[in-house]
Amino acid sequence: MHKRFAALAIVLTAALAQTQQRPEWPQPTVRGKLVVWGGDKAISAAHATFQLFASTDGRIVVVAKDVTAARERWKTSISANVVSSIKPEDIATASAVWLEVAPSPDVAKAVIKLKDSGGTVALSSELLAKTELEALLPHLGVAFQSDGETSTSAIVYAIDEAAVLVAQGRDLSSRGEGGTTLTISGGKDQPTETVRVAGSARADLIAVRRRAIERTLPEFPTKIAKAPDVKSGTLFIVGGGGLPDGIIERFIAAAGGPDAPIVYVPCEQAEVIAIEPSFVRLLRQSGAKNVSWIHTKDRVKSDKDEDFLKPLKDAKGVWFGGGRQWNLVDSYMDTQAHELMKKVLESGGAIGGSSAGASIQAEFLARGDPLGNTAIVSPGYTRGLGFLPGAAIDQHFSQRSRHKDMTQLMTAYPQLLGIGIDESTAIVVARTTAEVTGRGQVFFYDYRTKPTGETDYTALKAGDKYDMAKRKKIE
Prior knowledge:
By secondary structure, this protein is of the alpha/beta class.
């Protein structure tokens, strides 16, 4: 037996649809903890999970169908205020809520606010399916097509009766027996897609929502890839590890020299970075006199905050830090900040980055999975910032034996140019020419025709150049 949440439709005005032409990607920050049990067989597992999450020094409220039985159940575990009904002001002072009774609309809003502020909420899947509480676990992907029409894709959660779905922030996992099946409705001519959360298998809520949105958009990547042509400006793409000698000085020169405004963009999951990143000091030590840095996990800020965007409006160079590249996608893709970054390149400036800051520069994003860096393709996170069109970039290449992974990616998307870059190695890209510099090698994969021979790549070393349009070494 399964408990299922109802999928809802969102109706948006034509005026809104006409003014927004970009996909409405979700905000990446999800706070609080959510415990959802599928049926009566999962109550014990849900109870144990709730105890782990509920703060022992906070105020815990249990809204029970049977107050007497609930008091008996809770008295030996944690101190809780067990009641049969509740008011919004009672929720406002709580740190955790166990909910067995359908709330009023005002109480539902208070419960959602509690979780969004970092609190813990536990309830049955039956209650979660009610309109007033569905925002606890977002289930709609929304995108605006280029013709101005609104397209939606729903996520339906089917929780086994003996299972508990646990959401810690954006991380989805399962407790009890069985698990949860997430079904993503199909887009145009696409079948439904499922994700199973059970046992040790987890899912990322934002990745699933992005996956739903992807299904409302035109196919990506396109069957015929764009030519890897940087029509203006210069890209500096470093494979992680140490920086090749002189690469930062070359980047500063390409940005316009020591006085050129340069913006450093860290790749961090933290919402706030308290101290200036060390790479900012490295840029200054390398001769840059006008360096600033920006960081946010708020897409509204990266799209509309004029004070935040000002450094990018003046920038002649942008450098992306290392970390996990999906963070940069979450914060900046399809925002005004992203447009300003592209304008830096279009105006003849320079864009650089190492490790994650290398992969993010490609049109196709390698290793975008928020749950780990082992999978080379991660549905929901396959779009990079696109400064190098028609390409996918992987880093730490030989050091982490990633050749087979790139072969896997190229087999799936032979229209792309695959680029694997060793540590302490870089390519400097202008137009269709990639110049190799540093201590290691760079591996170029062309699968437009089936590769023959023992290797499926062209390996180049420092001083070599590669024509990315013709897909061959420049002799």
